Amino acid sequence: MKRLVILGAGTAGTMMANHLNHHLHAPDWEIDIIDERKTHYYQPGYLFLPFDIYEPDDIIKPIQDFIPKHVNLIQEKINRVFPKDNYVELGNGLKIPYDVLIIATGAKIAPEEVPGMQGSGWQKDVFDFYTFEGALALRDKLRDWTGGKLVVHITEMPIKCPVAPLEFAFLADSYFKNKHIRDQVEITFVTPLSGAFTKPKATAALQHLLDEKNIHIESDFAIEQVDNDRKVIVDYGGREVPYDLLVTVPTNKGDEVMARSEMGDDLNFVPTNKATLQSLVYDNIFALGDATNIAASKAGSVAHFEAEILTNNILHFIHGEPLRAEFDGHANCFIETGGGKALLIDFNYSHEPVEGEFPFPGVGPLRLLKESRVNHMGKLAFRWIYWNMLLKGTHIPFVSAKMQEAGKHF
Fold first, then answer.
1. Angle 363-366-367 (CA atoms, 0-180°, nearest 5)?
2. 165-203: per-residue pLDDT in tens?
3. Are 124 and 226 in contact (CB under 8 A)?
4. What pLDDT score was predicted for residue 353?
5. In this structure, how many other beta carbons lie within 10 angstroms of the beta carbon of residue 63?
6. To pair with 103 at 20 to 30 A between CA atoms, which of 121, 277, 332, 369?
7. pTM check: above 0.90
8. Are the CB atoms for 296 and 198 separated by under 8 Å?
């Protein structure tokens, strides 16, 4: 019997387990998925938790609920991968051999990378919302906060869900308006980029919204340190931005197991072929989701599209067939803009976010790069789709893994 091993039972790993469970069966194949955690987190929900839009129970469920019964879930720490010898060593010393390995170990925040970020103000007046614990602590802070200088800050790219910090700023604007204290809150968006987003066309639309909502932007800000005593963030050029409440997105890094295994780059992301999702070093290793170093957004929709394409490439590899270079970097993301509205963006490696209709050309009902309540409802509906379709490997009707050009204005 041959063995396929998946590292990580988050979004990407769980989807791959469900996809491959339909194709690889005993007695020919065994599938193992390894993750020390017991809880699966709906990470897009972290954005809504601080504003009391979601409750904790909305975004957490047991990992085992989503692993198919014929896949072995091993809940143990991953110590190291030995890629030349084709086995994974667990924290308890057990060695798991593999014929095919899929890396889906995700990304996590590393606030320790910035001096002072985890200093005396951590989870007092300096918060993240990229972890469940951080989002929950921030919720408790916002409930009692009476105003001042709110700074929403990105340390460096790449980060999971590149639009989430902007969404946080927009939702904060609505939140404080609803509390009737918006005039007591000064919101500043601080980014290392030269504009509001990574893509110029979307940046123009988002800059308009920042101006409309009276959110100041500080661009090209390369943070050097957080000064907890003076309550300022300082960049390498000496520029300072004062805060009363700092909501930061720390450096995002791949899992430490990739560093221990000597398989990652400087940020522990796995060097991966951007079109086939095969490792650039080892033929029988593949990677997807936030764990890769490819220049696609680290977002759930991207992992979903990658999973559909990678499933086919895994089967091609097993059967000795050429891999297909089909992943085009497709990303499809809702952007909450506050006031019960949202934008929808659709782009890939070669196309910036475009205007048009989605998913049906000329019909929609969703409009790209246009604010609407329908888009907001789509964002909220995604949670049901995530738990009931996406994780289970069910294809979402009318949504292609590759970006479709019909109905879009390039």
1. 90
2. 999 999 999 999 999 999 999 999 999 998 887 667 677
3. no
4. 87
5. 20
6. 332
7. yes
8. no
Q: At what angle do helices 164-178 and 200-212 cross, to 10 degrees?
A: 10
Q: Lowest-confidence range among 105-119, 126-140, 350-364? A: 350-364
Distances (CA, A) of 280 to 57, 92, 275, 293, 338: 40, 29, 11, 11, 41
Contact 296, 329 (CB under 8 A): yes
Q: To which residue do tokens 């000496």 refer?
A: 238
Q: Which domains does the chain have, with CATH numbers?
A: 2-106+255-318 (3.50.50.60), 110-251 (3.50.50.60), 331-409 (no CATH)
Cα 353 from chain centre: 18
SS3 255: coil
Give the CA distances from residue 59 to residues 40, 41, 131, 176, 277, in Å, rounded to whole numbers and listed in that order: 8, 6, 12, 24, 28
pLDDT of residue 364: 83
Identity of residue 320: G
Structure tokens at 359: 């998913």
Q: How confident is the model at residue 323 (pLDDT cuts 50, 70, 90)?
A: very high
Amino acid at 88: V
DSSP codes, 366-403:
EEETS-BHHHHHHHHHHHHHIIIIITTTPPPTT--SSP
